[in-house]
Amino acid sequence: MNDREEVREFLMSRRARLSPDQAGIPAAGSRRVAGLRRSEVAMLADVSIEYYAKIERGNLSGVSDSVLDAIARALQLDDAEREYLFGLARVAHGGAEPVRRRKPKQWVARESLLRALDAVTTGPAFVRNGRMDILATNPLGRAFYDHVFDGPGQGNLARFNFLDERSKDFYPDWSAAADVTVAILRTEAGRDPRDKQLHDLIGELSTRSDEFRTRWAAHNVRRHGSGTKSFHHHLVGDLTLTYEGLELTAEPELSFLIYTAEPGSPSQERLDLLASWAVAEPHHTTGEYHRAAVAQEG
To answer: Which among 60, 63, 16, 68 is positioned nearest to 40, based on CA atoms?
Structure first.
């Protein structure tokens, strides 16, 4: 991922999606571009056309926060997109380390974190990083994501989504799930663009999946905090679950996610059934929670 190219393509994609009407600009005469012109973004951001053109060519070095704020407002960026733009600027300002190539160390879950996961008994709970590696789960989470662990996914939700055909059964709205997965990876790329493991994952998925490559080119980003999702588990059938994503204060780059069903609903009954099967399986030791100790950069 070339930094300047990433800035250029991101800003161009945001400009292309915003029509003059949406920006409050009268559209006069024929237009050769689908969205706003550079000159119109510059006007809305109250900067010169030359300066905005320089920024859109990928040169964020020295650009002030106030100018970035003005551009974010002009392009009507949401919170996730604004954070992504500021992350790209941080890299341009020298706020990121070079790509890390030293040998990664294995991430090991704290005993207290494992106890917290085990305390969640009515729904799947797991910890993941921004690359979508599932690092630790409660027993129900392990049963819920069994296909993620035992196939091409290798414990990674993005690989499962794009390289395992079973994901199209697991996610009834597969296209929406794929969009979210790529947007999370794109957000992580803006937060930590020097993560070599992330580079490798994106390269692998781009090479092996046309669906991934198309979505990656859209430059969409998002936060993944809370919501409702539908699943079809191969053992218990259809599930409608709500989720809450929590950032781990001790490790801000990791997320703690919990899925729950409405009490008394068919989805809860099916989760209870899945939980009974999970309990019947041998209990996972601490070392087994994060399947082969998913590697994390040191």
So the answer is: 16
* 22: Cα separation from own chain's centroid: 27
Task: Kindly report the backbone phi and psi dihedral angles of residue 33, in degrees, each rounded to the nearest multiple of 5, phi listed first.
Answer: -115, 150
Q: Rounded to an integer, what distance in angstroms lies between the CA atom of residue 40 and that of residue 47?
A: 10
Q: Write the pLDDT tens digit of every residue in 121-166.
A: 999 999 999 999 999 999 999 999 999 999 999 999 999 999 999 9
Identify the three-state secondary structure at position 79: helix
Residues near 270 by Cβ (< 8 Å), separated by ≥ 6?
Answer: 233, 236, 237, 238, 239, 261
- Helix, strand, coil distribution of the chain in percent, nearest 5: 50, 15, 35
CB 274 within 8 A of CB 144: yes
pTM of the model: 0.79
- Structure-token match 């690092």, residue found: 135
Task: Report d(CA 226, CA 229) in Å as an integer.
Answer: 10
Residues 53-74: tens digit of each pLDDT: 999 998 988 899 999 999 999 9
Q: Which pLDDT tens digit goes with each residue over 208-240?
A: 999 999 999 999 988 777 899 999 999 999 999
Residue 291 burial (C-beta neighbours within 10 Å; 0-12, 13-18, 19+)? buried
Residue 15, SS3 per DSSP: helix
Alpha carbons 161 and 174: distance in angstroms, whole number: 8
